[in-house]
Write a structure and sequence with these properties.
Blueprint lengths: L2 E3 L5 E3 L2 H14 L4 H21 L3 E2 H15 L1 H14 L1
Parallel strand pairs: 1-3
Antiparallel strand pairs: 1-2
Helix pairs in contact: 1-2, 1-4, 2-3, 3-4
């Protein structure tokens, strides 16, 4: 399994579930229906999960950017919820 490089330069094993959980949390914050949440999670997680499984190691920032780019296309309200969370966290 691939490793990810976090912002603080630490490394940990890549977790596809963490990717899906993050997308799901943003989709819930955007108040999507449960069915739409599952569609968005499935769609937005495909590319980053595939990339992380094929590249060693990968930066978490690359994964985040890939997810947000896809969310901007398929469900902008979710990408805005994600970015809003990021702003509050900083």
């Amino acid at each position: 399994m691939a490793e990810v490089i976090k912002r603080d330069a630490s490394r940990q094993e890549f977790s596809a579930q963490k990717v899906r959980d993050s997308i799901e949390a943003a989709a819930k914050e955007a108040k999507l229906t449960e069915q739409r949440i599952q569609q968005v999670v499935e769609d937005a997680s495909k590319a980053p999960v595939g990339m992380a499984n094929g590249v060693k190691p990968v930066q978490t920032r690359m994964i985040r950017d890939m997810i947000l780019t896809r969310l901007d296309v398929i469900e902008p309200s979710v990408s805005e919820a994600w970015r809003s969370f990021d702003r509050k966290r900083k």
